[in-house]
Amino acid sequence: MGWSRRLAFTVSCAVFLIFSSFTSAAFAEEDTLIPMGHSIGIQMELSGVFVTNDVLIYEGQWLKAGDGVKKIDEQSIHTLREFEQTLQEKKERFHLTIDRNGETLQFDVKSETVKRLLPFLKDRTEGTGTLTYVDPHSGTYGALGHQIVDSSLKSPPSFREGAIYLSEIEQIKKSEPGSPGYKISSIVNNNEYLGTIKTNGIYGIFGMWNDAYKKVLSEPLKIMQPSELQTGDAEIFTTVKGTEVESFSIRITQVEEEQFQFILTDPKLLETTGGILQGMSGSPVIQNGKFVGAVTHMFVDEPKKGAGLFLITMRNGEKQ
Questions:
Q1: In degrees rounded to 5, what are phi and psi of residue 32?
Q2: CATH code of the domain made up of 49-122
Q3: In this predicted structure, what is the pLDDT of residue 5?
Q4: Of 49, 196, 178, 170, the residue nearest 114 (C-alpha)
Q5: Distance, CA of 76 to chain centre
Q6: What confidence tens digit (pLDDT) does each residue in 175-224 have?
Q7: Rounded-to-integer distance, Cα 283 and Cα 59, Å
Q8: Where is the Peptidase S55 domain (predicted)?
Q9: Are the C-beta atoms of residues 129 and 36 closer than 8 Å to each other?
Q10: What is the pTM assigned to this prediction?
């Protein structure tokens, strides 16, 4: 990705970024977005039941992390609840149908062994990050600036539905050289979602904004073109305490065609966080009153240093 130093993603997942250009002409009159910076909880209902760890089911036969449980006997399985209900049948053995990277596998397994699989199965995934923007023209949002990769499945999760929620920062584990810090947060209200998740793409997560949740919105800003960004002072919007979005100073240190680098300079932020944190991914970057892009990476060995994605590239991901 063009970096000479080791990088870590600012959410607790792995991802590969692929960049492309996107011209300003495509935006026409819709060239403003509302910068956010709110901490969000992410919940995604997976498209089935998946194995989270390699599990030995009998001598020489393993279920692998990422395997999908398709059937128990002739019963199709879509959720963990269905899996558990099927196991209530009093049987000595169960027949498992497993999908492994598109290949169908069959296993005949003792009932006790199948029941022991439960701690190693999941039908949902959760995470945290930062809301980047709301588009007042289309009623959509964008967050994170990179793809969610499930840490146990080690791949972008196949999901049937999902939503983002306002979360509250309760504690901060500060970043140190070689050891990225993180936010400890919880969802404020599980019954009030900010938006639905439509896409988990390489440029972030995108979906429809909940119109009923207007109290977190601020004024829109004009989108900055990459050619306009200059080295020097800028700011990020992010949340490090409660639900309050704050502005913190940074300095742009390098501008490339499709990305940029920066260093945190705000004494208050550095005192609180020690540098960029996991969960800060998606924080809006602003310069001269224009919306530049989003924080996407940190330098693990130098946590004050980070990298960002231009907003027009991120929006390109929404439109794909």
A1: -130, 145
A2: 2.30.42.10
A3: 30
A4: 49
A5: 30
A6: 999 999 999 999 999 999 999 999 999 999 999 999 877 767 788 999 99
A7: 49
A8: 98-320
A9: no
A10: 0.84
